[in-house]
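This protein record is not my work; I was only asked to verify it. The record follows directly below this note.
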Amino acid sequence: MVELSQAVAFGLAAGFIFLGIIGTLIPIIPGTFLVWVTVLLYALFERVNGFMAIDIWSFAFLTLIALVTGLADVWLPLLGGTVRKTSKRAMLFGLIGGTIGTFIAPLVGTIAGYALGILLGEFHKVRDVSKAFRASLEGVAHWGVGTVIQFAGAVLIMIIFIWQVLISL
């Protein structure tokens, strides 16, 4: 009976992890956060049932991966924005535009809303369409790199999770 509950828990965890990995590509699904929460819940389930597939050090490492990669779409555009001197207003407009775009048309709307937000915010500051357009393109490029980092982080968490569960059997 215990083996059956472990198998069901692992199957559910695998399904939610897969959904989280897809969520790194589709902004309306939590992504890396969902992968991390799934590992946390699985680890708690294991502890309650007397097993320890995910030890505290592995979970701490997975948490670090989740924080760094899961927030890449936040820190990477900001890092890029400070390098190219994009205004804070443009970054804020981009965040607002991306959020609104996500609800209108997930993925395409997110990218378009983010780009349009940066374009409008930067144009409002510099009054130069070419500079605002360049800032918008660079912002979208940084956002894209952030998405790739999130995807890679979620896959890495999945690999470590599966490895930890398999070596505990």
